[in-house]
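[agent] plan:
  1. take the single chain provided in the ticket
  2. run structure prediction with default settings
  3. attach C-alpha cells to the ticket
  4. add a short note for the reviewer (M.T.)
[agent] executing step 1
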Amino acid sequence: MLIRSLTLAGKMLVAPALLMICGQGLQAQTQCPAQQAAMAAAQGHHQVMVSTIAAPLQKDIVDTAVGAGSFKTLVAAVKAAGLVETLKGKGPFTVFAPTDDAFKNLPEGTVEALLMPENLKKLQSILTYHVVPGSVLAADVVKLSSAKTAQGEEVAIKVVDGSVMIDGAKVVKTDIQCSNGVIHVIDAVILPPERADIVDTAVSAGSFNTLVAAVKAAGLVETLKGEGPFTVFAPTDEAFAKIPAETLKDLLKPENKQKLAAILTYHVVAGKVTADDVVKLSKAATVNGQNVKIKVVDGKVMIDGATVVKADIDCKNGVVHVIDSVIMPK
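[agent] step 2 finished; step 3 output follows
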C-alpha cells in the first residue's frame, strides 16, 4: 500500500493513498492468482494513479490582512489611500504591516486626520513607506542595513538583542506568505523622514544667503518650493562674492528681475539628477532653456566653469549640488 505523509498544524497525519488499477475494477481483488496473472500478462503492465490533495490557494496581501482580523486600521487606511488594487496586484511586495495596536499608539486623532481626503498624499506616503518591492523573507531581511521602500525613502534595518528593528518598530512575526508577496508584522507605525524643500534647505544651511536673496528677488521661491523634482547647482556665498559687488547689486534690483531669473534658472535642471548620473553626462538642459556643459577634470565634476564641491544634498523636492562659482547663460 502506498502512503502519503501530510503535515497539518505541526502534527503528522498518514493517509492511505487510493490505488486504481486501470482495466481491472474492484472485481480483480477477488480473482484467483492464475486469473490475475493472465490479466497482467495480457495488459503488459498495471497503471497506478495516486490521488492528491490540493493545497489551499494563498490569498493576496490585502485579503490576507483582512482575514487575519488584526489589521483593520491598516486595511481601512489602504482603502482610503486608494492602494487596494496596487497591493492586490502581481507584485511581489514585502509589507511591514502594523497591527491595530500599533496604530493605537499614534497620538490621539492622528489616524482620523490621515483618513481625511485632504491628507491623501500624506497617507499614501506613509503606507508606501511600509512596502518594499520584491519578496524579502526574514532570512534576507536580517542581512540588510536598509531597504528602499516604494515611497522612495529607505528604512533602516538592524538587529537589537535578537529582535529585528525596522526604523523604530520591532518585527513580531515574519514570513506570512501571500500569493503576491510576504508580510512581516511590526509593532509600530513607521513614518518617512520629513525632508525640507530646496529653498528651506538652502536657508537652513546658512551658506547660501545670497542665493536665497536672489531667488526671492527673482520671484522664484514658490517655484523652487514646488513639487519638482529639481536639480539645483547652488553657488555658495563665496561663489557670489566673485561677482563684482556693483554687478550683483544691480541684478537684485526690480528692473533686472527677468535677467536675474534667467541666471538662476540656468542653475536648475528639471528632474532629480544625482551625482552618479551627472558624471555620465556631457551636458544637461536647464530650466532656462540652454544647456550647461558637464565634464570630469582630475576627478572633479565641472559644470561649465564651476566645480562641484559637494553633491547629493537630498531635499523633499529634488537634490542640490554645491558649486564654487556662479555660472552664466550665453
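[agent] step 4 note for reviewer: The chain has three domains: 3-50, 61-186, 198-323.
[agent] ticket updated
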